[in-house]
Amino acid sequence: MPFKLLLQLGWRNLFRHKRRNFMLLLAICVAVAGVVVMNSLIRGFQFDMQEAAVANLTGHVKMLAPGYLDDPNIEKSFTLVKDWQPHLPGVELEGWAPRIRIPAVIMSERETRGIQLVGIDPARENISFLDKVELAGDMLSDADDRRVVIGKELARQLETEVGRRLVIITQGIDGRNREAGFRIAGTFDADGKGLEKLFVFTGVTALQNLVDAEVITEVSIKVVSQLDESLAQQGLADSFLDLDVLSWQQLEPQAAAMFVFADSAIFIWFLVMMGALIFGLMNTLITAVMERIKEFGMLRAVGMRPRAVVVQVVVESTLIMLVGVVSGTLIGWLLVLWLSDGGIDLSAYAQGVELAGMRSVLMPRLLVEDLLLVSSLSLVFGILAALYPARRAVKINPLEALRR
Amino acid sequence: MSDVVVRCSGISRTYQEESVPVQALQDVDFEVCKGEFISLAGPSGSGKSTLLNIIGGLDRPDKGDVEVAGVKLNDLNESELSDLRLQKMGFVFQAYNLIPVLSARENVEFIMQLQGVSPAERASRATAVLEQLGVEGMADRRPGELSGGQQQRVAVARAIVTRPVLLLADEPSANLDSATTRELLEMLRTLNETHGVTIVAATHDPIVMSYARRQVNLRDGRIVEDKQNEAA
Amino acid sequence: MSETIVLEPVAEDRAASLLSVRIGWRNLWRNRRRTWLTTGGIAFSVLLVMFFMSMQFGQYAIMIDSATSLMAGQVQVQSSRYLQDSRFEDTIVEATPLIRLLQENRHIVSVAPRVEAFALVSADERSFGAQILGIDQAAELETVRYVKMLKTGSNLAGPDDAVLGSVLARNLGVAPGDEVVVLGSGKEGGIAALVLTVVGLLETGMADLDRSLLLAPLSTVQAGFGLGDEVHTLVVRMDDLSSSDRVVTQLTEQLPDALTVRAWQEILPELKQAIAVDKIGGQIMYWIIMVLVMFSVVNSFIMTVFERTREFGMMLAIGMRPRAIVAMLQWEALFLWVIGTAIGAGLASLLIIWLHDVGIYMGEQMEDYAKQFYMPARLYPGFSREVLTVAPLAMLVGTQVAALIPSLRIRRLRPIVALRTT
Question: Considering the entire predicted model, what is its pTM?
Answer without folding.
Answer: 0.79
